Amino acid sequence: MRIIKMIIVCILIISGIIMMAGCSNGKTASARDVEFLTSSEYWYHYDEATGESEKMSFSDDFTFYWGCECGEPVGNSDCYEMYDFDEDTSVIKLYNDYDDMTMEMEVLDHSDYHILLSIDGEIKDYTYVETGLDVVDSDKYMAGYSGEFSVLGGSAEEVVLGPFDYDGDIEYPENAVKAYPLADNFEAYTLYTYKHIVDGEVVKDEVDHQQITIKEAAENMEYGGYGFIWFNDDQQVEKLIFYGDTIVEE
Fold it and tell me: What is the rounded CA–CA span in Å between residue 54 and residue 73?
């Protein structure tokens, strides 16, 4: 009889452990593990198709939010209210407390100023503040782009990138600026816009978009500027568009 009682107690203990694991959905990350995610209230990515910024939030209590400026969820992101992070695999797992639905996002790179994520086969970079950049025909020129960066140097083999709002008078942490290799299929372009406004009316609105050689791209990198970047899964740059705009108002 005593043995039977011991067996019953063991079964109850094991069942309790399993129930606790189920309720926590296997969460393994600590607050310290996710400091790079929670360091900013929101992370932003400009969606060239909708013309709005996506907002992604990772809270200290492991709740999660992902929506656009208008308040609508991105895809089915409203199905996931919680998140976890596996430091060994660099994978963020999204889940909820009411069913078994999950979603995974891989962290490819991060700093105090951005998080580069692989989401359903797309490489998307989220920045610590909104860019607020109004790009003409963004859905045409930026389709499938990963993110916006300041171009701070480079060569025919790599490009040095920093925060999109980089300020040379500010001292940045070491992780803010990084050299990324160019992919074998690397392409480079320039995109310059000119807008002339008189008494509030646009009288001239021109766009100059051209492909340039790798040599020309390397020269532009050394000069510096602003660029749209396309990454592959290996964090190699497949495409770079040097962007600049001029607005004259009278």
Answer: 9
Task: Say if residues 233 and 215 touch (Cβ distance below 8 Å).
Answer: no
DSSP symbols for 81-128:
-EEEEETTTTEEEEE-SSSS-EEEEEEEEE-SSEEEEEETTEEEEEES
Residue 174 phi/psi, 5-degree rounding, is: -60, -35
- What is the torsional sign of CA 127, 108, 84, 31? negative
User: Cα–chain-centroid distance for residue 203?
Assistant: 36
> Could you tell me which of 37, 170, 42 has the C-alpha nearest to residue 112?
37
3-state secondary structure of 48: coil
β-pair type (237-249, 178-198) = parallel
Locate 3 and state its tokens.
């043995």
Residues 8 and 11: their CA atoms lie apart, in Å, by: 5
Beta-carbon contacts of residue 158 (< 8 Å; ≥ 6 apart): 179, 180, 181, 182
pTM of the full predicted structure?
Answer: 0.85
- Taking only the tens place, the pLDDT of each residue in 84-139 is 999 999 999 999 988 989 999 999 999 999 999 999 999 999 999 998 777 878 88
Q: Write down the H helix ranges in the chain.
A: 2-24, 35-38, 138-141, 214-223
Q: How far apart are the first and last CA of the chain?
A: 96
Q: How far apart are CA 216 and CA 240, in angstroms?
A: 12
